[in-house]
């Protein structure tokens, strides 16, 4: 999503520059400020995404040693496994409750 947002911001900047009104008019000024804020926010989001993906990689490496070296593996596969496990635990707990 970050790449798509960056591309859209670039397209809008280009359109604004091509319009010839980039330096005058309230709309152009406001849009220019908006685009600067967008670029700053996208930078923050990219940094956060990098940090989170590093944590995901470390977690996967910890619980599935060697799994992060497999380039074809989905980075969030560990969380799917954990979700499936928790679903099974919930099912078993419900069965135990119904038998009591």
Automatic annotation (TrEMBL):
User: Whose protein is this, by species?
Assistant: Malus domestica (Apple)
PANTHER family registered for this protein in UniProt: FORMIN-LIKE PROTEIN, FORMIN-RELATED
Of which family is this protein a member? Belongs to the formin-like family. Class-I subfamily.
SUPFAM superfamilies, A to Z: Formin homology 2 domain (FH2 domain)
Q: Name one Pfam family in it.
A: FH2
Tell me, which GO biological process terms does this entry list?
A: actin nucleation
Q: Start and end of every FH2 domain?
A: 1-100
What PROSITE patterns does the database record attribute to this sequence? Answer: FH2
Q: Which lineage is the organism of this entry classified under, starting from the top rank? A: Eukaryota, Viridiplantae, Streptophyta, Embryophyta, Tracheophyta
Which GO molecular function entries does the Swiss-Prot or TrEMBL record give? actin filament binding
Q: What is this protein called?
A: FH2 domain-containing protein
Which InterPro entries is this protein grouped with? FH2_Formin, FH2_Formin_sf, Formin-like_plant
């Amino acid at each position: 999503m970050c790449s798509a947002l960056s591309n859209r911001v670039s397209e809008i900047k280009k359109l604004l520059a091509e319009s010839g009104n980039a330096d005058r008019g309230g709309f152009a000024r406001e849009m220019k400020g908006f685009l600067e804020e967008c670029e700053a926010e996208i930078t923050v989001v990219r940094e956060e995404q990098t940090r989170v993906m590093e944590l995901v990689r470390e977690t996967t490496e910890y619980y599935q040693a060697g799994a992060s070296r497999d380039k074809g593996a989905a980075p969030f596969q560990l969380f799917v496994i954990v979700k499936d496990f928790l679903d099974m635990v919930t099912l078993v707990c419900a069965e135990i409750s119904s038998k009591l």
